Amino acid sequence: MSIVVRILSLGWVMMMIMSITNVADADISSNLLENIAEINEEGPYLGIVVPKTFELDPLLRSSNFLPHATIPQLDYAGRRFRVGTLENRKVIAVVSGNSMLNSGLATQLLLSLFKIEGVLHFGVAGNVNPQIKIGDVTIPQYWAHTGLWNWQRYGDRPGDALAFESTGDYTRNYGYLNFAKYKVGRLNGKVSDVWYPDNYLNNVWYQPEEIYSIDGEPENRQHIFWVPVNKHYYRLARKLEDIVLEQCANSATCLPQTPKVVTVRRGVSANVLVDNAAYRDFLYSKFKAAPVDMESAAVALVCHQQKTPFIVIRAISDLANGTSFIESSNFSSLAVQNAVKVAVKFITLSLNEMLTLDAAQ
Ligand SMILES: *[C@@H]1O[C@H](CO)[C@@H](O)[C@H](O)[C@H]1NC(C)=O
Ligand SMILES: *[C@@H]1O[C@H](CO)[C@@H](O)[C@H](O)[C@H]1NC(C)=O
Description:
35% of the residues lie in helices and 24% in strands.
């Protein structure tokens, strides 16, 4: 390298460093850093992540929530972190916004900025399991992101390796969706497993996420598809199954049955709003999922990598199969109310459990 090039590249590196420092200074103001430090002194907190304001508002308005006396909220990166106590448990709650990117991002900000001992994620969801009804509150044991795909070349069969499979980037372990099976008009009038080669969309194969563990070697990737919620939280969640839930949104709109809290095996999330009977049936038959939403698996993936215990509570507001709009306009407020009820009960139970554990030590 010539001396001129060396001097120029050194200058460039210094400019980069200076601009990064500037960005950092401008981004988290010293005032905000002080407030975060003060809040963290009083931690740890239970983090609460909720997709939308209509899901968080009932909790903030309930008499169970007391805002922090001096720093009730902190705003950063377009998010508002609300600090307070819920049933005497210290909490920080944030509305993430819709979809995987927003919910993953908001969860990571929460964990990076604050002293968080666990995360509770709740909201409403669609449902693909025929045993579960609108109004039921589901608590899955595993979450998967079902939106990371490898779209197979036309002409290739399930026995053929996927693009880049041999380098370890992709796998055929979790199954695929074959578009040709979902033609309108079937072969000889019936659904069958006969191979339909005449659809250029062929197959999409579901892929595990690439993750980087907080205590692992940096840049050393691992893969995970089914992300387990915290064992201890899940055991506590089983105790929520006898909560009595509301059946009516108002005197005119009632569910045909009393809704119930159910712990279920699996939930799935992707950047896809599902309101399609065929895809709903596919998600159930392939993955045996119950709730389907656009955020929970992202919260799960972030908490799993950061080794932070988490649990997800999702109340069913629609059946994801063609009438979602009408169903959720009738029942989403009832679903939110019931989700909040279960979330508050979880917080109380987990606090009691902590106190018992502390007393035993
Ligand atoms: C949606 O699913 C429910 C429950 O399984 C079923 O009763 C209903 O007929 C389905 N609707 C459509 C449009 O497939
Ligand atoms: C849901 O709302 C629609 C339209 O407002 C109404 O026709 C329907 O009867 C309602 N369903 C239930 C179960 O309340």
